[in-house]
Each structure stands twice: as C-alpha cells, then as structure tokens.
Amino acid sequence: MFGETSSFYNETLRKNIVAFGALFNQITILRKDENDNVANYIKIPLVYGPKEKFIYRLTSDSGNTDFVHIQNTFPKMGFDIANILFDPNRKFNRMLTRKKITENSVSTGYVGIPYNINFNLYTFTRNIEDNLQIVEQIIPYFAPDFTVTIKYNTLNEQVDVPIVLNDFNIVEDYEADFTTRRSVSGIYNFTMKTYIYGPIKTNISMIIEDANIRIYEGLSLTNNIPIYDFGYTGACGSDVIKFYQR
User: Fold this and answer.
1) 16, 71, 89, 185: which has the fewest C-beta neighbours closer than 10 Å?
2) Which of 74, 71, 79, 72 is nearest to 31 (CA)?
C-alpha cells in the first residue's frame, strides 16, 4: 500500500512550524529611563525547543572555556509541539480530489486529512513587567483565533489555517533563598487547525485542441468499414479513432 507510489514530501509539518514561529519572531519590549522616557527596545529571540531545556540553560552557567563562564540572559522565548491529533469534525470524504489543469499537464491529489497541532509557547523574563509587555503584544490578535494563509503544495497554494489561543498563564519560578536567580515565565497553549496532504500525481494533459469528424453514409451492415472516424490533436499528440457499425 505505502510502497505503490514514489517517495514524496510536502513539508506540511515543517511549514506549519515555520508559520507558527513567524507570528512571534518580532516581539520587542521597551526600557524606560528615570524620567519615564523610552530608552531602548529589546527584541526577544525565539527558538524551538521544550520548556525544560530553556529553564536549564537559563538557570545554569554556560562555559565558553574552562575558565570563563557566563549566564544566559533574559528575556527569551521558545515553543514546541505538545501533540498532534486527528480532527474528525473537519473531515471530508476521503475520495474527494483536487485538480489543477495547466497547458501541458493535469495534477491530481486527494483532499487533506484534518489534524490539530497543539503548540506551547514559552516566555522567560527577569521581572513581571517584561512578561506583561509580551502578553499585551500577543493577546489582542487572538479573539480567540488568528488565521494564517499557507502554501502547502501546487494544488493547495492558499490554505487558511486558524490558530486558536486556548489559554495562557504566568508563573513565577522562585523556590530558594534570596541569592537564587528568579525568572518569570509565561505559558501559552495554541491549537493549529491544519491539514496533512498526500502525494500529487501529474499526467500529460489530454485537452483536445482541434477535432475533425468524417461520417460515411449508405454502408452495409456487413461491410467492415467505419461509420465515422474522429481525429484530434492536442498537447498529448494526435490520433484518429474509427467507429464501426455492428
């Protein structure tokens, strides 16, 4: 079953991850001076990875050499995939197909299978004020969903994919003495309602560009002579089809 077609790769999951991350890669926070004027803006780096990895890297020293150790700096953002689940509420008939006809070819593929990808977005800051700035740059765009348009393949070039914000929470990680470094993290849970697509088959176009029909009259039923013939030319070539009387 799975070996009947040649290997294919639509990069569906990769494109979903890139599209999700692109929503949050321009978030910045501002710093003010003692006169309450804007001093500078800080762009928050965004990377892919689990929360535990970020907490470990933020709370431990990074050794550039055996003698020099530095700490990772705040703020930072990261995201990962929590799970991928089939969505029966958006399911189409599995036999439905899409077609794209060009001048020289016809491409055919089955409709996508609906899946929900659950993403977790993490924000790490030194103080609560920075985290609140991030919250106000994310929440207003989700009410509770935000739709992105993704090109998956040649048959599905503009697919609207809703991204739903399910919930978020702010957690202050502080469980030690006063010398322990404190961090404030925000946790956002999103659901991306996407599709997974199968292979695309491309065939030579069978569009007829020119046709000629010749009809023969007064023929006996016993004669093995065509009643009429049909000639055509097109992108796939040319041929003559003869039809006989029985």
Assistant:
1) 89
2) 74
H-run or E-run covering 187: strand 183-196
Count CB neighbours of 83 within 10 A: 9
Is it true that domain 12-203 has CATH number 2.30.110.20? Answer: no
Predicted pLDDT at 174: 60
Q: Which residues of the chain have pLDDT under 50?
A: 68-71
Backbone CA torsion sign across 198, 202, 208, 209: positive
Q: Counting beta carbons within 10 angstroms of the beta carbon of residue 16, is it exposed (0 to 12), middle (13 to 18) or buried (19 or more)?
A: buried
Please answer whether residues 228 and 153 qualify as being in contact, where contact means their C-beta atoms are separated by less than 8 angstroms. no
pLDDT at 69: 46
pLDDT at 62: 55
